[in-house]
Amino acid sequence: MAAIEHVEVRGPRNHTLVVVLTAQEPETAQIYRFASLSSTSVKRFAAVLQEALPVRDKAETGLHGPSLVTVKALNCPGLPAVRRDVATVVAFFVVLAALLITQSWLGACFWLCVPMLIGGGVSLTVLGWKPVSEGWILAVRGITVDGQRKNSGSVDAGDPNALYVYLFTDAEGSMCAYRGVNGGRNEEEIVYDPRNPGVNQLRRRNAAQFATGLVLLLALALPVLGGGVALGLFALADLFGFTSSTMIR
After folding, report:
1. Using CA atoms, how far apart are residues 138 and 45, in angstroms rounded to an integer?
2. Cα gap 78→8, rounded to integer Å
3. CA angle 49, 52, 58 (to 5 degrees)
4. Helix axis angle, 222-239 relative to 105-141, nearest 10°?
5. What angle, rounded to 10 degrees, do the helices at 105-141 and 79-101 form?
6. Which of 5, 127, 140, 211 has the smallest CB count inside 10 Å?
7. Which H or E run contains 192?
8. Distance (Å, rounded) from C-alpha 198 to C-alpha 168?
9. 188: closest CA among 155, 136, 151?
């Protein structure tokens, strides 16, 4: 509670709880947003939380809230996900064993290549999908505002790898930040998603980001995935006798 400056209820339907942490300078205050399907629950929780906040004197208003908060990512995969992974591995080795028993040597070689191609294709898809989806969202419903460069220890704490940090104010009056490797000017135009201001980019870089992700998906991810699926289908066809590797030789 000592790290919280105040809480607010925002959003078109009051579905977002905004928690503003204490800071030495108001423009560097760190903000957390929590969305809920129930606006009533958000309002009640905000009221209870606001009443529970301590009354601070002037000396306490300059506390650095982020230093008092620990963010912990929870990674708790459920049992069904574990079972699916195990089932996939077991199925792969069962098919491989069947190919070896039936002496489908070419099919077995192709089957061994399937995990590498599928895994690589999925990784490339994930890598390319983010810039494509975010670039499209920003192009369709993004709002452009002016951002001021503000590199300081308190701001950069959100991303130690960010080369440039630009602060901007969203439509709700909240201070947000763009962090990334693009930038350099003292002032940049920032385009952000009004539904999720954390999705943002330099306006002059958004088209390039979208194009790069699209090329990655079409030129690399899809061919790699397609190759893995094709090899897998050939191996299964060879196993069930729909084709024969001896015919290819």
Report:
1. 32
2. 34
3. 110
4. 150
5. 150
6. 140
7. strand 187-193
8. 11
9. 151
Contact 58, 15 (CB under 8 A): no
Report the C-alpha gap between 225 and 229 in whole angstroms: 6
DSSP strands (E only) in 22-90: 31-35
Residues 68 and 62 sit within 8 Å (Cβ to Cβ)? no
Please write the tens of the pLDDT for every residue from 141-168. 999 999 999 876 556 555 666 678 899 9
- Inform me whether the pLDDT recorded for 179 exceeds 80: yes
Of 23, 21, 3, which Cα lies nearest the Cα of 152?
23
Cα–Cα distance between 84 and 81 in angstroms, integer? 5
Alpha-carbon gap, residue 216 to 125, rounded angstroms: 8
For residues 237 and 217, give the distance between their C-alpha atoms in angstroms, rounded to a whole number.
Answer: 28
- Taking only Cα atoms into account, the Rg of the chain, rounded to an integer number of angstroms, comes to 26
Mean pLDDT of the chain: 82
